[in-house]
Amino acid sequence: MNQRLARPPRVSVVVAAYNEEEHIARLLASLREQTLPPIEVIVADDGSEDRTPEIAEAEGATVLPLDHRGPAAARNAGARAASGDVLVFLDGDMACAPEYIERLVAPIVAGHAVGTFTRDLYIANTGNRWARAYAAVRGAPPDRLLPADGPDRSKIFRAIRRDRFLEVDGYDDVGYGEDITLAPKLGELALVAPGAVCFHYHPSSLREVFENGRWIGRGPLARNLRRPWWSNSPLPIVLFALKQIAEGRTPWVLPARLIYHAGVLLGLAESSIFPERHLK
Questions:
Q1: CA–CA gap between residue 227 and residue 244 (Å, rounded)
Q2: Residue 237 is inside which H or E element, if any?
Q3: How far is CA 248 from the centre of its chain?
């Protein structure tokens, strides 16, 4: 059993953001409406080349300017700069329901877990064809990132005690998949926080779909597949997309899969030539 925290807990929100000018204001506005307000919102700006830091500062966040080193380094820097007892990690392309933070940290405050996650993470832009297609590409339900009846434990933490996070030196800098490096070091999985509702804006263009595939291809999860090149080649991809369409998924999954896996293949090639280059 973990030690109980003071009520109300002191919560710091850390947002690792890279070129999120389209979304960051929406996220920060949703954080101002929380029933459990954070004591601070730190936007760890990962070397953005757009107006992300200016918008974040105008919206009242504390901006931590950083060189472009990826989400692991950005989150770790934000955690070190934070002063709260509990860290809540968000991405720039998210938005939160008013009770999100309160419900997310409740199991930690009660001493039931060192950290939590939520299954109630919905796709915000399902009206966009490529967002719907990307959900199919990633094997997610049409309107949410995780199944409603999924397991109660996860490798991915959305909230965690700051002392335990710093104790294990935070996330490992591996590129895509950095968010699952924390659990093995802690020796504990995140506990589900029921009713912690938030929203994610999926890629809304083929360019974004391609770039996400490219980033994933640079990471260890893609490289460690049994046959990564074959798994991402056109023949199995087309056959699988046609199977998904026959099962009722959007027909746009076919072009989205071709573009996404082309990005993965490019990322795999880049990681073979430049193994340390795994950034977006």
A1: 21
A2: helix 234-246
A3: 27
What residues does 17 pair with on adjacent strands? 45
Per the CB < 8 A criterion, the answer to whether 17 and 76 are in contact is no
- Cα 274 to the center of its chain, rounded Å: 24
Q: CB of 2 within 8 A of CB of 112? A: yes
Q: What is the pLDDT of residues 223-273, one digit of tens each?
A: 878 899 999 999 999 999 999 999 999 999 999 999 999 999 999 999 888
Give pLDDT tens digits for 172-227: 998 888 999 999 999 999 999 999 999 999 999 999 999 999 999 988 888 878 89
**36 contacts 130 by C-beta, under 8 angstroms:** no
Q: What is the largest CA-CA distance in the chain?
A: 56
Band the pLDDT of 278: cuts 50, 70, 90.
low
Rounded Cα–Cα distance for residues 206 and 255 (Å): 9
Nearest to 77 by CA among 38, 48, 42: 42
Residue 112 to residues 38, 70, 138, 155: CA-CA distances in angstroms? Answer: 21, 31, 31, 16
List Cβ neighbours of 165 (8 Å cut-off, separation of 6 or more). 79, 87, 182
